[in-house]
Specification:
The structure is a single chain. The chain is an alpha/beta fold. It has 2 domains: 128-378, Aspartate Aminotransferase, domain 2 (3-Layer(aba) Sandwich), CATH 3.40.640; 394-512, Aspartate Aminotransferase, domain 1 (Alpha-Beta Complex). Helices cover 44% and strands 12% of the residues. The protein is built from 16 helices and 11 strands. The strands form 2 sheets. A 7-stranded mixed β-sheet has the order 1-7-6-5-4-2-3, with helices on both faces. Helix 5 (114-125) crosses helix 13 and helix 6 (137-154) packs across helix 13 (379-390). The longest helix is centred in the last third of the chain and has 28 residues, at 485-512.
Length: 513
Amino acid sequence: MLSTPFPETSTSAVDQIQADRLQKLTHAFDTADFSHAVAVAHERLAAHLEKDDLEVLKQEPPAGLMRQARALMTKGEGEFSPDRFADILDLYLRTGIQVNSRGYMARQFSSVVPVSAVFDMVSAMAPQPASFYEAGPLPNVADKILSEEFGERLGWVPGSFDMVSTSGASLANLTAVLAARNRHFASFWKGGVRPDSRGRPAVAIGADSHFSVTRIAGILGLGEDQVVRLPVDDRRRISIEGAIAALDGAAERGLNVFCIVAAAGSTSIGANDPLPALAAIARERGAWLHVDAAHNGAFLVSDRLRGRIKGIELADSFCLDAHKTLFMPAACTLLFYRQKGLAGTAFPQKASYVFDPDEDEISRFESGVKNFECTKRPSIVNLWLTWALYGRCFFETKLDYLVELTRIAHDHIASLSDFAVAHEPESNILCFIHRPEGSDGLDINRLQLELRNRVRDANRYFISKVDLDGVTNLRIVMMNHRIDRNDIVGLLEEIRRHGRDIVADWTRQTVAA
């Protein structure tokens, strides 16, 4: 058989053009450039980790930051510059939240375990997409090992359950509810969502559910009108009496609630819903119970905290975020199914280029058929690596400390006459308000918001805020084990200082008006 010859052209000219192009590519992939970049990054990150001050956030106006970023860009063609790389790295570190600072108490993400970040870089340099074994052998094995470790903590029989790692609780919650929908309404995957003799498909969620849970109804085509809100009690947990009444009312309106979504660690205050009672309600009504345990699911690693999420082992599915309370690089989420085989109901698809028709030793390790992602980052290896090096008790020690520190903060703040706590903490989240002297008659909600903004802008402490029953609260989240009692006292003094200034400023404005 004769091969087809290339068209007659100037071969030497083509070769020269190709050589020039490859030379440009070679520079970008050069190990010398890589070594320079790593050296600069190591120097900057080591200094970043060693910082021990209260500077948290120098928030740059977007327009100014845009100008700085554009000024660092190459126009046309360029080559690696260690100095420019350092400038870009400095800009990133300088303008972001200093999560290692003892003044950082705002969000549910924290500094990561350093070795996990190093391995995150390794997995980026040597990619192993984690959904399929042949592309990512170790990530799939790590999935199974950690599944077994958590299964033991749950008291589940080995081999009777399933776990899928994915990128974020928003995606995990959606996947679990999709599995629940397909289990109850098998025809919807092909035929689409439509009412049947059992009523309109609906989901029930707690009144304090994360906004991503509400989105699920719209994404799955159920519609937000088919979301049943379950009232919360005075501890902001789903009220069992209220839930029964709400579910009965939904049935009377022709809704078929196929899934109840509870929380183990609400975003607002870290509350844990009464999972054993909700599991009983779900069983009685033939509904699937899913638990969004993105924040408090990690309590499974702690002997001391495990009881706070009692009943999670009864859920049909639940998820936890390792990038929150297991301190991993984002995003790394573990989605558990109590019954093996349920994970496969989320995506009843066939694709010959990735899915094998018959399960074998290798395909049993794969998660591609069970989650949204095909090219999934091997984030699970970061968690497995840290667990392998330091053990489960490493995570337990840090979590126990942070939760106890939050209890100490609660008790201290509750003893102060010019502060009022909103709840007893069930995790590492605490909400409270400050009433400075002379604030009677002032808008308390506007005052808390102004306090939060002034504290942030002063760049010594960074806290968040949340509305609870129409009242704006200051909110702290303890994620940094370097924080101690003195830092809590320092934060309160900072709040008091700004409170005095706000009262004085607003009083002057009133007089001037």
